[in-house]
Amino acid sequence: MKNRHFLIVAALVCSQWLFAAPKIQQVEPLCWWTDMQTPLTVLFHGQDLCDAQVSVQQVVNGKVMRGACLGLVPRSQHNAESPNYLFVDFGVFQPGTYRITLKKGSKKATYDYVIGTRRQGSRDRKSFDASDVVYLIMSDRFVDGDESNNSTANTAEKADKSNVNGRWGGDIQGIINSFDHISDLGCTAIWPTPMLGDNEAAWSYHGYACSDYYHIDPRYGTNALYAEMVKKAHEKGLKILMDMVPNHCGAAHWWMQDLPYQNWINQFPEFTNTNNVFTANYDINASEYDRLLSNRGWFDHPMPDMNLENPDLLKYFQQWAIWWIEYANLDGLRVDTYPYIEKIPGSQWLAAIRNEYPDINIVGECWTRPAPAVAYWQSGTKNFDGFDSHLPCVMDFPVEEAIRQALENDGNGWGNGLTRVYDAMTMDYMYADVNNLLTFLGNHDMARITDVVKDKDPRRVKLAYVLLATMRGIPQVLYGDEYAMTSANKEDVNNHSYLRAPLPQGEAVTEPMKEMFDFQSRLFQWRKNEPVLHYGKTMHFLSRNNTYAFFRYNDEEAVFVFANASEEPRVIPTETYQEILSKYNPTGINPMTGEKVDLNDKEIKVPGLSTVIVKLTH
To answer: φ, ψ for residue 519 (rounded to 5)?
Structure first.
């Protein structure tokens, strides 16, 4: 009798265990839309969701409708290794609110999922290109527009402006408040560093250790405010790029407590760094050991390396990027640490985004040199192995390095000075599209340009900006460089936290800062209306006296640029330019001064550390 009673109780306990009430904690993507090219797979995470039966009913005016649901139809489902995940594929046919039920035995959990109507013209959205100038913002440091969100109850790190490595309070409202400043400078697109949740206990301000791929960090604002920022930017004629990091997440991400699969991230018996050997992706002599460590090693301790070779993770990241573009109406993407990603699934990730948005531009951080190593990652490059990354735009680190090295000293010696720039530009034949390179003088991960040039001389900074504005590619300006900002740490100008200072405001903007801003503003405002600088060809001329000359040209017009990086005046050797100069009226206008310049004059002197620009027509 006792044994019989025990068996009955055991059976009841077992049945409760077998059919424990499912509990939904995360549902991603947060919503979806009709008329999307990308099929919808929803990740459900919670308590005991594996093998749940899935059903859907439409909700109208808060009332659950009976009968078959034709607007959102479950097609297939599969479990993960963890019993707390369920992946469900849906057919999407009509907008509306749908109650999704996950049932196990007599227990069930529900979630109301919204399908929206896709924005008209969304698929054919245009993007940033060589007619734009991109303004790079370090989101936490730029401008604190709303002090009430500097510290929040549900985030680990609180604001502390006395801690150079801590949170300082920059936010979405600060960016919105700065639209006029950015527009007045002549910039037309904004790239903020990541604003998604980053809930590390320390060093979370940089944003590159994501803890939530679908929510803006509350210290910046909300998803709704982010979308409002994009809307207001468009009203000002500005574009917004989102900085995405598919290579790694943060150790504080919710899934790190319960991985869907053990290979969701790349794991090792002990912490193992990436070897940063990007060349292993195309080096015919590379070992498999080096290749795997390059793609699978961790970027840093709090940054678990994602394994995009897991098909569910790849699908998750494809939908994630597409969701943000659609939800916020984005104009483009910047991809962090692109060559660290597993090569083939990385290209599949980008291909899915571009299949959904054929004209969208995406720029990847491929921090390597020389030019052939960068060109390998640009889509359309005729690589020997047939690989196509589907990454349309890459960051031009070789030319950035050449300009900085040319101006960090007096440029004396064979191969130094502006000869470095000439040599870097000779590699343009390697790229599939030279007009779709992101050109820059510095970014948030390197010393500011004013810290680099000799004597911190503003003349050298201006010379660098003339090159940036007139060379091929898409110029990018690091916030604060319009004021010739320098690092707060004079002993170590490469210390990232010190160079990521807030943008000066009000009385903190000095007269020299205003003068630098006015110079760059005239330059970039003029550039806006010069298609020859956006899409024209280049012909350049070498001189060994630390000068550099080039023409940006098409069949109708040309822009001539002469840069003198020496401290002595130089005479423009106009007679050497006749092969191209003879095609245009040699008398043109210097757009920076409004003065006429006759390039047939053989006695044009250019002062040391300065430039001459001349707009020519037929």
So the answer is: -65, -50
Structure tokens at 183: 């527009």
Q: Decide: 183 and 238 in contact? Cβ < 8 Å.
A: yes
Instruction: Sort residue 125 into left (φ over 0), alpha (ψ -120 to 50) or beta.
Output: beta
Coil/strand/helix, residue 593: coil
Closest among 121, 535, 94, 93 to 358, alpha carbons compared: 121
b/e string for 392-422 if b means 16 or more Cβ within 10 A?
bbbbbbbbbbbbbbbbeeebeeeebbbbbbb
Mean pLDDT along residues 415-439: 97
User: Which residues are within 8 A (CB) of 343 and not within 5 positions of it... i.e. 6 or more apart?
Assistant: 281, 295, 387
Q: With DSSP H G I counted as helix, E B as strand and the rest as coil, what are the percentages for the chain, rounded to 5? A: 30, 25, 45
CA atoms within 13 A on the CB side of 586: 14
pLDDT tens for each residue of 318-368: 999 999 999 999 999 999 999 999 999 999 999 999 999 999 999 999 999
**Contact yes or no for 572/545 (Cβ under 8 A):** no
Sheet holding 587-589, edge to edge: 537-542, 547-553, 557-564, 610-617, 587-589, 596-598
Q: Which long-range contacts link 370-376 to residues 24+ away (Cβ below 8 Å)?
A: 370/398, 370/427, 371/398, 371/424, 371/427, 371/428, 371/430, 371/431, 372/427, 372/430, 373/278, 373/279, 374/398, 374/431, 375/427, 375/430, 375/431, 375/432, 376/281, 376/282
Residue 239 CB-half CA count within 13 A: 22
β pairing state of 32-33 and 107-116: parallel
The C-alpha atoms of residue 386 and residue 439 are separated, in whole angstroms, by 26
Q: Is 60 exceeded by the pLDDT of residue 15?
A: no
Q: Does residue 3 have a pLDDT over 80? A: no
